[in-house]
Amino acid sequence: MTEQFRYNAFSDYSSFNPAEELKKIHMIDDQFVKQSFSVNLKHFFDHLFPNCQSKQSLIEAQANILIVDTVPLDQLWQNTLTELPAEQFYAAICQILDFNAGLDFELTASRDFLTKSGQKILSDETVDTANLVQFMFNALNLRSANGLSLIDNLVNDGYLRKAWPQDLPLPLFFAGKTLAVVPKSDLISEAVYVDSQLDGDHDGKNDLIQLVLTRPKQSGPDLKVPIILTASPYYYGTNDMAEDVHNPDGDLAVKDNFDFADQPIADDQVLLPALTADQQSQSAAFQQTLKSGAASFPLNDYFLARGYAVAYYAGPGTRGSDGLRSSGGPDETIACCAAIEYLSGHRLAFTDKTASHSLHADWSNGSVAMTGRSYLGTLATACATRNPAGLKTIISESAISSWYDYYRENGLVVAPGGFQGEDADVLALDTFSRWFDAAEMAKSKQIFQDSLAEMKVEEDRTTGNYTAFWDKRNYLKDAGNIKIDCLYTHGLNDWNVKPINVFNILKSLKGTGNAAAKVILHQGRHISPHDIRSLDYLDICNLWLSHELYGQDNQVEKSLPDVMVEDNLDPEIWHSQQDWAKSERHQSTVLAALSSAKTAGYDDDLGQIYRENYHDYASYEKDFYAGDARFAKSTAVFDLPSFGEATINGRVQVDLRIQTDRTVGLVTAALVELDAKEHASQTTKAILNRGFQLSLGDRQVPLRDFFKQSVKAHLIANGHLNLQNLKGPGKINQLKPDRYVQAVFYLQPTVYRLTDQTKLRLYIFGSDMQYTLHPKTVQHYQLDLEKSHVILPLNS
Fold this sequence. Notes:
Layout: H1 18-24, H2 37-47, H3 55-63, E1 66-68, E2 71-72, E3 83-85, H4 86-96, H5 110-116, E4 126-128, H6 132-141, H7 150-156, H8 159-163, E5 173-174, E6 177-178, E7 187-195, E8 208-216, E9 225-231, E10 279-281, H9 298-304, E11 309-313, H10 330-343, E12 349-350, E13 357-359, E14 364-373, H11 375-384, E15 391-397, H12 404-407, E16 408-409, E17 412-413, H13 424-430, H14 438-459, H15 468-471, E18 485-491, H16 500-512, E19 517-522, H17 537-550, H18 556-559, E20 563-566, E21 574-577, E22 585-590, E23 599-604, H19 606-613, H20 617-625, E24 635-639, E25 646-650, E26 653-660, E27 666-680, E28 685-693, E29 700-705, E30 708-722, E31 741-746, E32 750-754, E33 759-765, E34 779-784, E35 789-795
Helix pairs in contact: 1-6, 13-14
């Protein structure tokens, strides 16, 4: 059975000269223009079978490729050709791309198949001498059934080793991207120690932070390479912190008057004098191999084979390093910037923790990029706000831009999805791998426990206010310092690091105009999209880093759309748009128009319902949003009218006239689609029999993609507000019982396509089990529906 699928190519190769690019990879030479069309066409197809080690094996391989129903490819060379129908050319190419004739496509409709599956092909009806190089270049850039381009698969199969029996160039570019030229056997690994100029563990000494890096053996003073740095606090593993997670059961606190604007803020990080060494070692002689460590980041494995060095940096308080953990504090950023400065050649490192021998990165070309997902990507943004020497770009996936938006929301303690009860102190404990070594445990245990106790006070789970603790961990306020191009990726259904984080950093960067800022928004949760079939993510990243770190003029910063978003109805369709923060119109609906009454009341007894009936949040939410009868008195529910063919673009605003019978209160709003017959999944599944190699000789990575499914209730976006924080998370208002207040707040940002058949429902309720605290006291709320609105930002 033919499987319907679609690629989406945001990569653009139209600016390249095909003949020049083909010469770079020895696909053609100067004799090409002197040879006949027939000879050149045969040479091209012969190159597409690098695994064939003999003439006979090549004949047999080409005999399995049909160009029409009765003619195999090997018979094509029996006659002298002056042209070839483009349909037959692409029929052969489709099979070499590993698509199955008769199953995936018909031989007489290969061009139609490629076009419908999202591939960019040439429109010429005939291949001849005048356009052969264009067809060859186009074919090599088409994506195979395993998701990689044809040229990448040829390289993995050994094409370059045949084209260059000796002295394979490093790096080697084709169509503005680096090709895989470095096998794992030609890599070396080493560990160095970077002086952070901090004393986080208060032992009177500069904290030295371990940096583990892998680079090509050829790299050195005569061959300098760029570096991809991933700052991963999880690199050496994590602690079991189940017993340290906070209990969410408990009532909201009555807050004292507070205004963050009145609080003094100072940067209390004092840099110590830099360490110096009496002797300097040569990098060529220093190759301290370090084999321990966590799994590598997939994107980095891809680039290791393509002429880059890759460095992993776990940071202060992790195994092999001094210092403590602070969960996104300034010390973590400062120490990471020191590592960047070493990698870019602007500071020395040391061969060991005695700091007696220093080392200069004489193999570095001075250009560093940061990559990573979640905490890893967060530190990339953090470092970019300090503009360290040598940092040229970041590729940041599912990253935090303000730790307040990760652990708090509008004056409430709000957990990241899937981690109810976690907080900054718990994360610090989770990542404190320094005490995995017994001697380090003895030295650091007490000072670390003291720091955790201090963090528990400063993070303030009692009020949920925006305080100096969170201000130090807010990278948005320093976004104006970012001068480099940034590529972000985020899941629109990521309830761990919620979309507000990427929405806000993009909005901040767009306001500065200092550099390009692009974003890829997929329908998934907290994932990396390197293995998604419908998106050319690896090609995008390759073009991006080739431009930013190697200076390739591939126009990616101009050709790539500002916003690339996966469709919520058909996950194989991707859209592009210029802005996420602006919409064409704002559609306001008065809630009274959706009800037969002028008021609506509900009780927040949800904590009690959860404790008595459920043991996991997934089952609870499934019943809750499906309208289970047990929640009838605990919510106010409004079915919205149809908005026709439109797209919600940005943040839905909720404006409620609300009162409660206590001096504390919280409100949750959730926008849900009901009974969607077709909807994109939030998880991916493996594509049958399709896998690809990230690097030379590497294991097969399963190709995956999102899929269509029907859903009973899909949570589009939600938002939470403490009624004592009506003027903002850093300013308190006193709440009086049974007196109406106007509560205005926004839901998580989204891009969500609507149709005439879309059924939208707005839920208004109190505590949200997976995210907020679980009040024990049952509390009543009342809404004035005539003065309550929901406002949707819509594009046509």
